[in-house]
Design brief:
Length: 328
């Protein structure tokens, strides 16, 4: 039985990855310190004999007994609101955390896939974004903590590949959504859906002309799985190229949720990218992969998930309190 370590396992993507690898017949070790994750995302695996969970901060030395075949490094805050609130932890998990996991991969002769992001392109001047675009990132802006941690993560991963001959994979993930996103993580889909469910106005940042391209989680996981099993060591974009402005998206959410609330406009956060759309030609060619879930279908599944949350979860203070983690 092949063994895989998944960091960030209690998070949105990490928990879906655990499910996928278990389904494929792997023994899965999930690791997380719960800073932005939720125990609830893994409850269904609690008694699964092919799953083990280790509560650990990956910025500290990572110890795993026995062999490992694959490592998927997904630990990192991923929502702008999260990483603005915990900037140092964000930098550390992308740098020190990645270094620890690359060291572990080397020691175990395991293949490692790291979760990079469309944010390495910053506020892009090339559209759609192809993997050979170097990006337009403000190193010292508030988002720089995430973007630069991820860029460093890519660099150190390539250094381990070139210098140590480590088998590495880099996925550049574009906005992905689905069940198990945290309702209060501040990202646009949970934000709009939470507002609709609570009977609040939908908050658009800026004039809503900025664009995003939303990928349903099952498509994303399929792309990541195929990339891990491929023999390609350079970054690959995985996302859905179907681009939409945030204003049009808010209208779609109003229709889907049937809310009577209106749209209100707030200030656009600093360095908020104005356009984002993945060029997925490489993933199509290399992995024979492309998204299959239409936005309408994926949003309906996601809204059904948010509707199933308890009133306590729905009205829990808007953003996560990181105080305990910061003290540790
Ligand atoms: P998430 O916040 O739901 O999950 C991240 C998980 O990592 C959480 O469970 C958190 O507790 C854990 N974590 C953070 N720091 C840790 C540490 N030091 N030690 C151990 N665990 C730690 O976010 P997500 O959307 O699931 O994102 C997962 C990964 O995918 C991240 O690396 C993110 O940068 C990347 N990504 C996600 C998206 C997206 O649209 N969802 C887009 C681009 C990149
Ligand atoms: N956004 C918004 N209202 C919200 C939350 C987000 O208009 O309540 C905008 C945000 O400014 C950005 C886009 O929606 O332009 C996507 O934001 P998100 O936080 O989901 O992720 P990003 O793609 O910026 O990392």
């Amino acid at each position: 039985m092949k063994k895989v370590l998944i960091t960030g396992a209690a998070g949105f993507l990490g928990s879906h990855l655990c499910d996928r690898f278990i389904k494929e017949g792997y023994y899965v070790i999930g690791m997380d310190n719960y800073i932005t994750g939720d125990k609830k995302n893994l409850l269904h695996l609690e008694n699964n004999p092919n799953f083990a969970f280790v509560e650990h901060d990956v910025t500290k030395f990572v110890k795993i007994d026995g062999n490992l075949d694959y490592i998927l490094h997904f630990a990192s805050p991923a929502s702008p609101i999260d990483y603005l609130k915990i900037p140092i932890q964000t930098l550390k998990v992308g740098s020190l955390g990645t270094h620890n996991l690359l060291g572990l991969a080397k020691a175990k002769k395991a293949r490692i896939l790291i979760a990079s992001t469309s944010e390495v392109y910053g506020d892009p001047l090339v559209h759609p974004q192809t993997e050979d675009y170097y990006g337009n990132v403000n190193t010292i802006g508030p988002r720089g903590v995430y973007d630069e941690a991820k860029r460093f993560q890519e660099s150190i991963t390539m250094a381990y590949h070139r210098f140590h001959g480590l088998e590495t994979r880099i996925v550049r993930i574009f906005n992905t959504y689905g069940p198990r996103m945290r309702l209060n993580d501040g990202r646009v889909i949970p934000a709009f859906m939470g507002q609709a469910l609570r009977g609040e106005d939908l908050t658009i940042f800026g004039d809503g002309s900025q664009t995003r391209s939303f990928c349903y989680v099952d498509d994303q996981i399929e792309g990541i799985y195929r990339l891990l099993l491929s023999d390609y060591s350079y970054p690959v974009n995985i996302g859905n190229p179907h681009e939409i402005s945030i204003k049009d998206f808010a209208e779609e959410i109003i229709k889907l949720t049937g809310t009577n609330q209106k749209i209100v406009y707030k200030k656009l956060p600093i360095d908020d990218p104005l356009q984002r759309q993945p060029d997925i030609s490489l993933a199509k060619k290399l992995l024979n992969w492309q998204p299959t879930v239409e936005r309408e279908q994926g949003m309906k599944i996601t809204f059904d998930y948010f509707k199933s949350l308890t009133a306590d979860e729905l009205y829990r203070s808007e953003h996560k309190d990181f105080t305990n983690h910061i003290k540790k």
